[in-house]
Amino acid sequence: GVSREEDETIRTRFDTQARAAAQEILANSEIANRIARLPFRRGTRILAVGDSITDDLQSWAEILRHVLAIARPDDDLTVINAGLSAHTSAMILRRWPSLLAPAPDWIICGLGGNDVTRIAGDKPQVSLSESVANLGELRRIAAQRTAAQWTWLTPVPVDEERAAANPGFQYGSSSWRNTDITALADAVRDLDDPVVDLVDVFGVPAHPDLQGVDGVHPSLAGQQRIVTALVETLTA
Questions:
Q1: 89/110 Cα distance (integer angstroms)
Q2: Which of 26, 53, 58, 164 is deepest in the core (most CB within 10 A)?
Q3: How far is it, in rounded angstroms, from Cα 9 to Cα 14?
Q4: How far, rounded to the nearest angstrom, does the alpha carbon of residue 127 sit from its chain's CA centroid?
Q5: What are the pLDDT digits (tens) for 136-182?
Q6: Which helix (H) or strand (E) holds 81?
Q7: Integer distance in angstroms from the first to the last C-alpha of the chain?
Q8: Do the bridges between strand 149-153 and strand 106-110 make them parallel or antiparallel, or are there none, so unpaired?
């Protein structure tokens, strides 16, 4: 319902705020030094895979893009935001081959928040065993088709009370339980490759400053913490 000019203004504002968030991260000298040591060679293509937490115009992927552009401008590093709102691991799996062309050098995968969503009942959209199988298939196909290095992000804990009170989630009869989220996070920790533990970062329930007003999508501060945790994991 907005004009093209209004849409562009909104997107520019979000991008400006994502860049400001990146500059705040770089103001921390310890994190800035770690960013300089991130194992990304010149010309690296980084594929960010996820749901609405990644798809967000102020997401960790967008902030990371700005962080790398500011801190390492000569390295020609590219972050491709392949986040798809409302997508489960099964839905991403269906699209997966097309997302791998051209082949990325790194893949950072944060899926599962929609797998554990319960719609008008007690059944998650995707069972735990199927989620784990889907994630394994994503990894297998990527290894078959690319030489990309891989990093996992665990799902993000929610504020169940905020989510339950949100009109949009009430309308869609959508709900979340942190027990489902932590169970999937436990399974992700058992996968190969580095894991960024966002359960540890956000806490259970999620810290109110890190979780957004709807209780499910991180605040800008929460998105910054995801970037910081990713940098710390990859430079540990």
A1: 10
A2: 53
A3: 9
A4: 20
A5: 999 999 999 999 999 999 999 999 999 999 999 999 999 999 999 99
A6: strand 78-83
A7: 46
A8: parallel
